[in-house]
Design brief:
There is one protein chain. Helices cover about 75% and strands about 0% of the residues. It is mainly α. The chain has one domain.
């Protein structure tokens, strides 16, 4: 249930009109990294009870990255938003970073 609510929140944030002028500040990319890192983490928490530890992390990173791509493609179709490859790179980076962090932090207890 938490996963679905989170994905809906991300969807809402992705399609609402962007506030203020577009900038190249790193805050935007940091936000993408955090949001899709959290997305990967929530996927991990949902999948780890159904599959092996490392497989759940790998699949979660893939799913979070694909969801980020879907949001970017959706933004391409919305007049007040725009598709950005650098945003998708930040999405993937966040999912990967949080996935690796989770694996490193929890791997020893899974051996």
């Amino acid at each position: 249930m938490i996963l679905i609510i989170w994905l809906l929140i991300v969807l809402f944030l992705s399609i609402m009109p962007a506030g203020g002028p577009q900038t190249n500040l790193p805050l935007d990319k940091i936000t993408h990294i955090i949001v899709y890192g959290i997305t990967a983490y929530i996927f991990i928490r949902n999948l780890r009870i159904r599959m092996p530890f490392l497989k759940s992390i790998f699949l979660s990173v893939i799913l979070a990255s694909l969801y980020g791509l879907a949001m970017e493609l959706l933004q391409y179709a919305i007049p007040w938003r725009q598709f950005s490859l650098s945003d998708e790179a930040a999405n993937i980076s966040g999912a990967l970073f949080f996935g690796i962090l989770y694996a490193v932090k929890n791997y020893r207890s899974k051996i």
